[in-house]
Each structure stands twice: as structure tokens, then as C-alpha cells.
Design brief:
single chain, 222 residues, mainly beta, Jelly Rolls, six-stranded antiparallel β-sheet, 2 helices, elongated
Length: 222
Amino acid sequence: MKKTAVLLLILIFSASLISQETPPEETTETTDTTSSALGDQIYQEITLEDFETTAYGDKDVSIRVTKDQKASIAIRDVFPAPVKGSKKYLGVKVYGRQGDYVTINFPEKLIIEKHCQSISMWVYGKKFSGELSLILQDADKQVHRLSFGKLNFLGWRKLTVKLTKSIRQEDKYLSQARQMGILKMTYNPSSRERLPSWNFFYVDNISAKVRDKYKDDQSDDW
């Protein structure tokens, strides 16, 4: 009996020595953190036009006239959008019908120098189902129409359009920064009646969600 107990102790001690001498098998896991780093980029919303200081008038609006259609714009200050610090906004009225094309030119191009994820603007709809768009010129000087949809709702809403990969905006060379610009706003009335009718809507605080552009900071001079 004693011999059996001694033998068991010897076996347990030997097993312990073997486990200590044999190092655990190492496992290596390679993680590509590029995707997560890109996803962690912090975007910020910048204001492109708040309509607080820029002068707008009928010289900045035009309409394709087929008979007696007309359009007018003016800066207003009654019941602005629910944006902090907003006191003024752009009022637009259009006497037209479906097929007419209203263009509102910005006195100065709205410049976007950083990488842009989306563009937003506050719009007050009055249940007219005309379509509102912004005309964007990308870094390759190509022009794109960003549709914000139909304005068949009542009250202020923040409308947003995400930019697709077809819109070029990255810098091609480190020493040559490129930019995009919003050139104008367009509106297409939706009335299918033979006679034109009045459409009204209001726009405030055009903004862009942006981040810094990726740059190659790794020097090859070594």
C-alpha cells in the first residue's frame, strides 16, 4: 500500500515537471486596424451658408419662362429654423407648374475643402410636392445634382443627402489641394394643372459633414 502511494507521488511530480518544461503554444493574431481607423475618423458639421449676412434678391433667381411664370426670393426673419443662432433664412416663391425649372444662384460658390460625407439643409415645406436640389461641382470639375426630394410636408425639416463615390473629392497630389463647391439650388414645381400655381418654401443653414482628408505622412527619403 505504501509502495503504491509512493509511486503515485512520483508520477504526479514527474507530470508537473513535464508541464513546466513544455512552454505553452503561442498563438499570433494579425489584425488589420486600417478599417477600424478609417471608421474612427471624427466628422464635424460645418456651416456653408446660414443666410445671416449674405444679401439675396431677385437678381439671384431665374425661371425658365414659357408663358407668365415667375419666381422671387428674399431674406426673411420670422420663425427661422430651429438652429442655434439662426435669425434669418431664405424665402422662395414660385409661380409655375410641372416642367418649369427654377434656379437660385448663390452670390458666392459654397466651398468644401475637406472630405465630405453628406450635405444637409433645413427646409420649411408647405405641402407642395416640388423637388428641391443642389448643384455640386466636384474636385474634377464634374457637375452633380443632389436631390433632396419632394417638399410635400409641413414645417421645418433637416434634409440630408449622402455623397457617393462617383463624386470625386480627394487630392491627387500632396502639393495640390482640391476642393468642391455648391453652385446653385434648383426647384421643379409639381403641379400638373394646365395653369401655373404659387409654390412657397423656405431654406436655412446649408451645412456639410466633413473630416480632414487622408494624407501620406510617411517620408520615402531614407
